[in-house]
Amino acid sequence: MTFRSIKSLLIKTFSVFSLLLATEAFAGENHTPAPAGAGVEATPATEGHGAKKEGDFNVTETILEHIKDDHSWHLWGHTSIYLPVILKTSKGFEVFSSEKLVDEHHEPAIYKGNFDYKLIKGKTKIVDASGNVDEEASKQLWDFSITKNVASLFVSVFILLVLLLSAAAGYKKTGVKSAPKGLQSFMEPIILFVRDEVAIPNIGAKKAGKYMPFLLTIFFLILINNFLGLIPFFPGGANVSGNIAFTMTLAVFVFIVVNVSANKSYWEHIFWMPGMHWSMKLFLAPIELIGVFTKPISLMIRLFANITAGHILVLSLICLIFIFKTVFASAIAVPFAVFIGLIELLVAFLQAFIFTMLAAMYIGMATEEHHHDAHGEAAHH
Amino acid sequence: MLLEINPLVLPDIGLVFWNTVAFLLLLVVLGKFAWKPILKAINDREQGIEDALARADKMKSELATMQSENEALLAKAREERATLIKEAKETADKMVADAKEKAKAQYDSIVADAQVAINQQKNAALTDVKNQVGALVIEVAEKVLHKELSNKAAQETYINELAEGVKLN
């Protein structure tokens, strides 16, 4: 009986939700492209009736604010940690607290350092006296600030170091012969999973050992950041693994490792596909060459899009309460947010696994030994 | 350009830089102090288990061969024992038979000797008896003759009688 009522409630919610989606997707047609599917449902709410009637609540901005990086880390209420800003300009390095970039109303303010700095859409820019962006000077501005994402990344690095070093200490203490205990027994299956399900099937047992530290580090770094991203408050709350800079960096590392460890046969298969007619070889070479780059790019976009989309989804559901301006909307929004949150838990693990899996696969492809005698034929043509 | 429109897909150099630092740090520190000992420990344990299993298998097969060897030995011993017993029995039988035969032969020869001796004795006794009978006869005959010869007619009758008696013998 309870089950049936829950089911009917779910169905009603879904229909309301899809109706909302449909109408707003329609309304959103003339709007500028929403950031990475940033809730098609969210944008028009502000542009349509939102901007006119509700005034100051902008769903897109709210969501983007949570997705994007920031110079301060919100703790609770009006309390935030102001993180250091590190800038490199034509006049050298400069370090100051990000508190100086905002006024007492949390609005961007001008800070006078070597230049006049101001946050324009969350990014530090050099402005002139009248407050306009100085494009020429801003191009020479390198922002190495410890932002929220960087701080969160450091937190995750710290957690990883503590977790794994203490797990490693367990092996030293209890020795090899005894069964793993505590933290050790929690980490070992994950490590074995990466080794037996990811590394060995893709790279081969002989070479897998060489790449295990790399794959394990990538896996755990993504996993811990995915999980930290799901925690809505400090020390989570940052969207590290849903940030393209983070995924790009990891993808670049994969790209480097794959191409550095690639053997002769891998390059031969890219530039002069064996066993093909010479015209086919000419045709395939550029495609294969593009493939070299699309592989890490796909890694980058997959992780970024998955994590960002999950965050946007949860935030959109929570924003429903503010769109409807009634607390009763939470009856729908909160269960859905919890449901999506549970899916996100799965996605957090899945994306870490897929990233590592594909990285292992690319490494495996690059180091694979081919056993065919097409080499002689290639020489003939 | 898309990158300029959408702030989400525009990577910040700051995060790229710090992420590179963080990742390399993790890779080096974890690689040296976590992954290496953990993977080594896991490998060692697996190797140990594998070795132990292999040893157990080897022991098992060794045990099996030993058992079969034992059985073969046992069977051989049993066979040998059987043959030994058989041979012993044969020898014993033969010895008994030989002894019997020998005994019989001895017995026969003893009997034969005895018979010869008996015959000899008998003959000797007979001869003796004959001699004695002869002497007695002669003595009797002498006495009779002494008495008879005193009577002529009776003498003759008697000679005739004797003569007749001799014929009957």
Model description:
The complex is a heterodimer of chains A (381) and B (169). By secondary structure, chain A is mostly helical. In chain A, 64% of the residues lie in helices and 9% in strands. Chain A has 12 helices and 8 strands. Chain A has helices spanning 2-27, 42-54, 59-67, 135-139, 148-174, 183-203, 205-230, 244-261, 264-271, 278-324, 330-367, 375-380, and strands spanning 72-76, 79-82, 84-89, 92-97, 111-112, 116-120, 123-127, 142-143. In chain A, the strands form 3 sheets. Chain A has a 3-stranded antiparallel β-sheet. Mean pLDDT of chain A is 80; it is low at 16-54 and 373-381. By secondary structure, chain B is mainly α. Chain B has one domain (9-168). Chain B has helices at 2-5, 13-148, 152-168. Chain B is rod-shaped and about 200 Å long. Chains A and B meet through strand 8, helix 5, helix 6, helix 7 and helix 8 of A and helix 2 of B.
Tell me the strand percentage band of chain A.
Answer: 5-15%
Distance between the termini of chain A: 75 Å
Largest interface, with counts of residues having CB < 8 Å to the other chain, equals:
A-B, 57 and 36 residues
* Residue-averaged pLDDT of chain B: 86
Q: What is the C-alpha radius of gyration of chain B, as a whole number of Å?
A: 65 Å
- The total domain count of chain A is 3
Number of domains of chain B: 1
Shape of chain A: globular
- Please, what is the oligomeric state? heterodimer
SSE series of chain A: HHHEEEEEEEHEHHHHHHHH
Number of β-strand runs of chain B: 0
Structural class of chain A: mainly alpha
How would the global form of chain B be characterised?
Answer: rod-shaped
Rounded radius of gyration of chain A (Å): 25 Å
Q: What's the helix-strand series of chain B?
A: HHH
List segments of chain A where confidence is low: pLDDT < 50 over at least 5 consecutive residues.
16-54, 373-381
The strands making up the biggest β-sheet of chain A line up spatially as: 4-3-8
Helix content of chain B: over 70%
Q: How is the main sheet of chain B built?
A: none
Supply the number of helical segments of chain B: 3
